[in-house]
Prior knowledge:
Layout: E1 5-8, H1 12-21, E2 25-28, H2 34-39, E3 47-50, E4 59-61, E5 67-70, H3 75-79, H4 82-87, H5 89-96, H6 101-106, H7 109-114, H8 120-123, H9 165-172, E6 175-180, E7 183-188, H10 189-192, E8 211-217, E9 225-231, E10 242-251, E11 254-263, E12 270-271, H11 273-279, H12 286-296, H13 308-325
Parallel strand pairs: 1-3, 2-3
Antiparallel strand pairs: 4-5, 5-8, 6-7, 6-8, 9-10, 10-11, 11-12
The structure holds iron/sulfur cluster.
Amino acid sequence: xxxxxxxxxxxxxxxxxxxxxxxxxxLIAGGTNLIDLMKENVEEPSRLIDITRLPLRKIEETxxxxxxxxxxxxxxxxxxxxxxxQRYPLLASAILAGASAQLRNMASVGxxxxxxxxxxYFYDTSTPCNKRAPGSGCSAIEGLNRNHAILGTSSSCxxxxxxxxxxxxxxxxxxxxIAGPSGERAMALTxxxxxxxxxxxxxxxxxxxxxITAIELPPRGFARNYSFLKIRDRLxxxxxxxxxxxxxxxxxxxxxxxxxxxxxxxxxxxxxLEAETALRGQAATTEHFSRAADLLLQGARAQxxxxxxxxxxxxxxxxxLMQAANATPQSQAxxxxx
Length: 338
Ligand code: SF4
């Protein structure tokens, strides 16, 4: 682990000033991913800017009936907040599917969005990795790639995004609020993470001198017909092979509105507007859910060891949509697949 400088930001403006003054600095909140990466010499920030005391820990109602979640709200607090449990249970369910209770207590909402891939080669500094060392190559493409992406890959990187929370946020249509030297801006969660293309070392569209201040949820929460299904090698404390966030609005058995996002299959949460459009106005049946799965998985491409993910994802999409339609969401407390 390298030597680094330490500063504590007094407010958001101070954090931005420190980021601007110290290229190579990193913000630190819960530290549940960054400290691991520093111990492995994958991340080598010149300075850590401690933002844990910034006033970004509130969950507030917005005038239009949505919610604004401060970037420093711990994942556990968010999952168990009564407003989230009642109005956005899909988000609570996705958070509780992730990590462990101890990690969820430490990890912040903003940090969850910023966590980096768990590709084993990314963590192993003795191997080539374009995400860690641009231009060095991708060890996973010819190596062990069972956990890797099937959608949106490039010849430079086939890593997946590890966040469960982001998958639910993508389905819910969340916005990410950002502050930087030129002011504030907001972007759709679905635009926040990037595909690898030929710059896989750039995970997100956040600039180096910007800070996430909040996540905004729109009023529509899909609290009745939703489910989050996470398939993994063990039923706790493991990253997704495939996850599905599904949310429906039904009129009888007819689908008025549909949202489906996938995790564990791409460099970002994967949504298909074509699949969601195809579901609108249809009956909530296995046949229509299978068609949506086909559309979501259009262009899926297997590597040597992860071909099973395509069929796994197809079945998981249909199952999760059926759980949502039946209002029988996957339980995250009972560690078995419903
Ligand atoms: Fe690195 Fe991406 Fe290849 Fe993994 S998949 S070795 S993160 S370039």
